[in-house]
Amino acid sequence: MKSVTGLFVALLSNVAVASPLVLYTNDFEDIIGDRFTADTGYEIEVVQMSGGNLLARIAAESNNPNWDVVLFDGVGSLHSLDQQGMLKRGVSPDNEQYLTEQGRSLVPESRAWMPAGTTASCVLTYRTDMVSDQPTGFNDLADSQYRGMVGQADPAVAAPAYPCVAWLHYDMGMEQARELYTGILENDLRVFRTNGPTGRALSSGEIAVAMLSSPNAYAMQEAGEPINVVWPEGGAPASSRGVAVQANTEQTEAAEAFVNWILSPETQQFLTDNGGKDGLFLSPVEGVTPLTYGPPKDAVYNVAPADWADEHEAEIKNWFADQAVN
Amino acid sequence: MPSALSKPHRIGLVKPDTAVGIGISLILLVLVAIPMALVVVQAFMPGILQGDLSFAGLGNLSELFHRRLWRVSLMNSLYLAGYTALFGTLIGGALALVRQKCSSVGGTALDLCAWTMLIMPSFIIAQGWILFSVRSGIAAQWLGATWVYDAVFSPPGLVAIMCLKNYPFAYLAITAAMQWHVKEYQHAARLCGAGPLRTLITVRAPLLLPAILSGMVLVFIDTLGDFGLPAALATTYRFPTLPYTIFTAINQSPIRFDLAGVLSVYLMFILVAAVALYLWLLRCSRFDFLTAKAESGHQLVSKNGWIFTAVAFGFIGIALGIPLGSSLLVSLTENIGAGFVVSNLTLGNYAAVLQSGSALKEALANSLQIALIAATASLIVAFLAAYLITFSQFYLNGLINVISTVTLAVPGVILGVGFIFLWNHPWLGALGLNLYGHPFLLVLAGMAGAIPIAIRVLLGAMGQIPHSFMAAAALQGAGLWRRLLTILLPLTLAAFLSAGLASFGSSVFDLAVTSILHPPGYAVLPVVIDRMFQQGLYGESTASTLIAATLTLCLIQTTQVSVRRLFKHLLQTHQADAPKKLASAEVHHA
Question: What start and end residues bound the annotated signal peptide (chain A) (predicted)?
């Protein structure tokens, strides 16, 4: 009994005091903390969660947020948080001056978040040893030669998968996009939880073609997997990562310093070089050299407007989820 | 004696029972009922946490009939849980019998297998089966058994995997109940001309009905609430169940806590119905069959014991060997795609996760610490709760029973969200009780998850103790605590031990709750392992899992052996004598 009491005391004394800046992120968790502290002097606690868990936690904490800044892949979700009054508006970091034209186009009117990088949310990736006629566009995936051999991450679960579906609906119109997806689903589309399992299914030959996020696709190719990546004509559906400050944070100065730090060319280069497959992104700031094995330099990224993506999110996800069950 | 039982207040049981009952009810309210209620109330009063008490109507409930995904999820859950409860209990019961007939080595191996399956997170088991069954997996590539894919990734295949994962609930409940038996009943049947099989079916099995039903209910509700296995299998075979769909409802943007609450209501309704049926079945008859002739059950190696031993090891080979063997091979492999050749074998994954300052070491220490505290506290609460349900007429017994049972099936992620609602509320913060972001909340969440398991295991054993034992002791002047410690505890020691170890094992790997409640910078085992999985580091994640599971199993087995040795004298003499002494007291009282 004494030992149990001792453990209680030990556990109670092991309190995680949330005095440093608290960052919620679904990327770069292993490399951000030390570097940010070294560069700025601010202490930071990095909390990593999958995209879905992160949003659930933020929603559950809405009464009493435990976070100060968020770095999230999917500006549609940030727009949603902004609409709920959970993000500090009017953020204007000094390093905004380094934004590229593409980066500037992603800054919302409310200035509730700043762009932190863009990736293709789905590129056509196929196994060269299993596919004779390579697919050239998403329409090809309804072809019977690919029956049961195409896979995609679940837009309801995987953070980067919704921007893929959202762009197709935005670009083609709701009806046409539904026709496209109905054809692909009737061709026995395999829906995996996230991009990770989708990539592994492709790697193991479980499927022959995947609509895969560009970091996963190029990392697999670099690892020597027998796959080829097709960048769709007219550009790939894309997902933009954003960084935002919690509306009622008590650490405004450190939080804004974090946003500024993320937008510095040095930080962007650091994240590119040290982020592993997360480093395969299009930087929103000037002067960053991308990884050599990533997407082509002239690749076009198509991001659905954040407000449109947010407005239609529930409708598109529910439709997809209901159609995807057997 | 029944008169003494039906009117316990005549022998002075009311006051202590009521005090204990109120205490247990309060604990269950805080740990389980209030967090769950907050989640459910969200479905109908979305603004309640902001102080807005306006009622949004019952419209959300009808969405089940409009959303195809929800309908399919409901049907899938019922299919999976129903068939798994039936066949899982049959397997558990059959193995409990095999355990008595096979060699001691076989019996120990069966126990070890059951505990391993119990503490092993279901997603790890599923991953093992996936690695074995997929078209590029071991079965197809090594054994040429291409049919395995279609057999496993089908509704009956999932039932089979769930049976192999969840049978330990039935096995442990029935094994614990078989600790005591009265041979005279069987001898009488045999003298009347009944064969061994008929004796088993018409005498032994009915007497074990409380344990069988307990086991079956446990298997049903654990299957119904299991998230890990269907979710992991969903990476290859899409089979949405209610917990999986609830998980997606609160893991996507926009977050729909209200809809998750609606689905939780349906899930709880099914569980309450199952528990009500279980209680009704128990009340149809009396099962307090122990008498002064009761003997401690031990392994009876028959002349054909080797057949039973072979059956035991054959089962273990399938249930444990296939998934864990696959995980072991992956943990020893550099690159899965390169095949299982000597040049591809490595210990690098183990070295990587055990290196100095690794997240695994810190997470392991934290999780074992939390599980130990949670299990100890849970065991005390569960023992008292099981006592109340079985022996007292405390007016909230029904509530205790329902709360503790329903919690078994509620997905951990829902419980986690409920915990945030409660423990992160500004009102509690003003009182200095804002525990969200504190490791102690993981202990409370571990308790909330472990208490129901411990109660179910203990109820099966306590169901066999005649109420007259306790009543007779009370008549002799023994107070409540003395009766609990000198009669109930020794008679249910095996189940008590099982319950404590089951609580410990289940707490160590509770992924759902810990992933949503762990404080920033506080590493916990399931989260660390899951993160490796998410990153596709199968080698390191399987290595971490095997290290953690081996260590946990060693702790469980050491505790089990130590306690059995420590209480050997008690088990052989005190326990054997107890029924006789109590029966004697009963006779005197009569």
Answer: 1-18
Q: Write the residue in A52, A63, A76 that is nearest to B424 by C-beta.
A: A63
Residue-number span of the structural domain to which A129 is assigned: 123-237+311-324
Same domain for A267 and A288, yes or no, is: yes
Beta pairing, strands A44-48 & A21-25: parallel
Q: Who wins on pLDDT, A34 or A50?
A: A34
Token pair for residue A8?
């209680």
B515 touching A, CB under 8 A?
Answer: yes
Length of chain A: 326
pTM of the predicted protein model: 0.74
Q: How confident is the model at residue B287 (pLDDT cuts 50, 70, 90)?
A: low
A137 and A232 in a single domain? The answer is: yes
| A251 and A105 inside one domain | yes
Do residues A130 and A259 both lie within one domain? Answer: no
Q: How confident is the model at residue B1 (pLDDT cuts 50, 70, 90)?
A: very low
What is the model's pLDDT at position B83? Answer: 97
User: Chain A interface, mutation test: which of B253, B433, B530, most A Cβ atoms within 10 Å?
Assistant: B253
Helix (H, G, I), strand (E, B) or coil at A240: strand
Task: Please determine, for the modelled complex, whether the ipTM score is greater than 0.85.
Answer: no
A232 vs A237: CA distance, rounded Å: 9
In this prediction, residue A185 carries a pLDDT of 93
d(CA B132, CA B149): 9
CB-based contact B421 A60, cutoff 8 Å: yes
Domain annotation covers residue A106 = yes
Rounded to a whole number of angstroms, the distance from the CA of A314 to the nearest CA of chain B is: 7
pLDDT digits (tens, 9 = 90+) for B124-158: 888 788 878 877 677 877 777 888 888 998 899 99
Chain A residue numbers with beta carbons less than 8 Å from the beta carbon of B376 are 4
Question: Which of A14-18, B15-19, B228-232: highest mean pLDDT?
Answer: B15-19
B254: contact with A, CB 8 A cutoff? yes
Same domain, A42 and A90: yes
Structural domain contains residue A214: yes
A225 and A318, same domain (yes or no): yes
**Does residue A250 register a pLDDT over 70?**
yes
Among the partner-chain residues B137, B231, B443, the one whose CB lies closest to the CB of A193 is B231
Report pLDDT digits (tens) over B270-279: 877 887 777 7
Cα–Cα distances in angstroms (integers) from residue A127 to residues B8, B130, B235, in the given order: 74, 21, 19
Among B424, B437, B534, beta carbon nearest to A16: B437
For the stretch B392-432, pLDDT in tens is 888 888 888 888 876 766 667 778 878 887 887 777 767 77
Same domain? A163 vs A70:
no
Total domains in the fold of chain A = 2
pLDDT of residue B9: 45
Give me the domains of chain B, ranges plus CATH numbers.
12-44+73-352+366-589 (1.10.3720.10)
d(CA B516, CA A241): 22
Dihedrals φ, ψ of A302, to 5°? Answer: -110, 110
pLDDT of residue A297: 87
Please check whether residue A228 lies inside any domain of the structure: yes
Residues A193 and A316 in one domain: yes
Give me Rg for the CA atoms of chain A: 21
> Does residue A306 fall inside a structural domain?
no
Task: With beta carbons less than 8 A apart as the criterion, state whether A26 and A73 touch.
Answer: yes
Assign residue A138 the CATH number of its domain: 3.40.190.10
> A-chain residues within 8 Å CB-CB of B429?
64
